Inverse folding.
């Protein structure tokens, strides 16, 4: 059974090695001791969200903090190409469900996209609160899936912003569209795939109403390629994670995990 994972601030794990003792305070320590009810001698892991993972044993703990005796320290390098999900805002928290599942599947970054046909709108105060909700969703899913590297949540993007992202050097955009002629599964894992040699693959998923033709034109002009997943039309909440699963298998990410 995998060990429970708790997040510490960036830099807190620097310089640690077997035999070190780290004092952890704040909400994560309280969660470990009062919610998870970990007892002295039980094993756990600490991560910084940037790829460092510390395994250790709980020495002491109460509501104010805990001491962890370090037994091992590992560093998980960033994987290439980076997988990014550009998820259109969707009603009923379907966008959050997509982001949550994508985090569990290993996505490296998520981009909230204000598509033309998105019913949900992030405006003024709601924008900051909604973005923070995405950050919390990613954090919870990263902990649940025992990740040492947590996805970045980029600011809200318009279609023009997204086109600029897709046009950056080393980036390949893949727009999921049910009317595309090419299949993602047919290309994944094969030589000559449209993303070969890319540093970053951005999967673009539209809202419930689909991606508007004008948006397809803008993204295609930025170099994106339209691909379909299969004969079924998936919901906005499942299309991105399904595509990530296909890509992860094709890129060999699941053949040998980082741990």
């Amino acid at each position: 059974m995998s060990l429970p994972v708790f997040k510490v601030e960036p830099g807190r794990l620097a310089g640690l090695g077997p035999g070190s003792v780290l004092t952890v305070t704040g909400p994560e320590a309280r969660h470990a001791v009062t919610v998870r009810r970990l007892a002295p001698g039980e094993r756990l892991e600490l991560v910084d969200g940037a790829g460092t993972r510390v395994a250790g044993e709980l020495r002491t703990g109460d509501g104010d903090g805990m001491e962890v005796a370090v037994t091992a320290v590992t560093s998980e390098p960033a994987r290439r190409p980076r997988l990014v999900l550009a998820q259109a805002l969707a009603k009923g928290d379907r966008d959050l469900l997509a982001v949550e599942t994508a985090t569990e599947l290993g996505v490296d970054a998520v981009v909230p996209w204000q598509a033309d046909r998105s019913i949900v709108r992030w405006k003024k105060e709601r924008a900051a609160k909604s973005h923070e909700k995405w950050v919390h969703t990613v954090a919870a899913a990263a902990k649940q899936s025992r990740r040492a590297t947590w996805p970045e949540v980029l600011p809200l993007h318009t279609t023009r912003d997204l086109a600029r992202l897709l046009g950056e050097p080393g980036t390949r955009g893949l727009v999921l569209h049910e009317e595309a002629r090419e299949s993602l599964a047919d290309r994944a894992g094969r030589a000559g795939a449209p993303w070969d040699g890319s540093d970053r693959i951005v999967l673009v998923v539209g809202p419930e109403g689909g991606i508007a033709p004008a948006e397809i034109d803008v993204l295609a002009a930025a170099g994106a390629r339209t691909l379909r997943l299969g004969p079924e039309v998936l919901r906005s909440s499942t299309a991105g994670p399904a595509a990530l699963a296909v890509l992860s298998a094709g890129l060999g990410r699941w053949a040998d995990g980082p741990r």
